[in-house]
Model the fold of this input.
Amino acid sequence: MRRRRNDVPLDRDPSGRHLPWLVAIMVYLATLALVCAVELSRVAVRWDTGLSGRLTIQIPPPNDDEATKPPGGQGALERVIALLLATPGIISAEVLEPDEIARLLEPWLGAAARSADLPMPTLIAVTVDRNSPPDLARLGREITAVAPGASIDDHQAWLGRLRAIVRSIGAVALLVVGLVTLSAVTIVVFATRMGLSVHSEVIELLHLIGALDSYVARQFQSHVLSLALRGGVFGLLMAVLTIFAVWSVFDGRFEALGALVRARGLEVAAVAVLPLAIAFIAMMTARWTVLRTLGRMP
Amino acid sequence: MVRFEDVALRYGTGPDVLRHVSFHLEPGSFHFMTGPSGAGKSSLLSLIYLAQRPTGGRIRLFDRDVHNLSRKETALMRRQIGVVFQDFRLLDHLTALENVALPLKVVGQHDAKVDRHVAELLAWVGLADHLHSYPPTLSGGQKQRVAIARAVVSRPSLLLADEPTGNVDERMAVRLLYLFEELNKLGTTILIATHNESLVARFRHPVLRLDGGRVTVTRATAPVRPDKGSAA
Done:
């Protein structure tokens, strides 16, 4: 049986040697960008979920004039706790022990965090019913009324900044994927034009024996598809290996495997489809370039 | 089948290669075309196989004006024309078998049956032992026979041959001319450009004589099929 062979000898072109490597590098970068964006997004969602439904109420330490009063403004604390427990939508209110606050501050203040001279605010961790949360503005006013200077933090400002950062990183990842795609298209356009020029005599002969432009285009598109697929799959494998290596170094264990197993099907599919998508785009670009170039000929 | 009316051809800003060329090849006819080197025989053939467009006059092929053909229509019309190029134009990276099968592959036929048919044709032109040889390994005469096999493999309605016997011995030349005659009997219109006057004399078909960019048509003194060979 005759081996199927391209009528246009594109296998011998320099593009045949370089295109798979270029596509591999592009798919590698795009995969890393996508995985970073997806992972950050998942971390943000975890933090968002963990912090929503929680409030932190901070009662400032007594000032110098009040130093002789009972520590922590006990009266204020009791009033705030009573108010919280009486408010619909509040599930629990837990006062953080001074030791626990010191432990939270220790990374920034060091041993000084445990100093008795350091004025510490009283912190209350409040769990809110997510289904019927209280009116935070009203709750804030009521708390200020019973404990002047107290503040209520629903973490939304911090979460908002986090979401903005994650959105920005996601946009940058998409930009990287877009630029990679654009680069692939440009490279394929130039490689195809070069191929058309180098093999002009063969193409002329094919035309003279009755080949349609689409027949010539198929020669190029199947060649480019094959090269881009090879490069794309290699780039993807390299990216997966890199991700494993990075996670392994950071975790000191093979947690990357677990992370991939935990990954949602859609995310895995998005990464797996990337080389296929790039290869498809490269193929269609080659076809379009050939048809457009030949179509301009008399 | 082929009608030239006052056709002229010029390359770029150079002089006219052909001028005031008018003739008509009827379907099923067999013509030789002769003339000195540089008379424009290859150029005239290139106009017929649509590699060039005339700079003047009008050409009709298969009852269609070639001026208005789209690229697709041009390709479809070329499928009805077999061409033996003077320089063979074989693809060096394909075997003799693959080169000959190319016109069939282009129209979507490529299977074992095609291979058998192509192999038989190559055997007929004496290349049974070279089915899988690449053109660079073939002699000039062998390449010419591959080129002829490629031109006739799809049973074209019109066969154009530019010096098809230039690189083969007299015996093979006669054999190839018989092949063309067989095709002609099946209805293919044949136009052969040649310097080989003895071959022209032997087969006695009408002759288009090209000289100084003009064509004159001489009828064969004793045509093989006077009912078919005619020119105007």
Q: What stands out?
A: Residues 141 and 169 of chain B are 8 Å apart (CA to CA). The radius of gyration of chain B is 17 Å. Chain B has seven helices and ten strands.
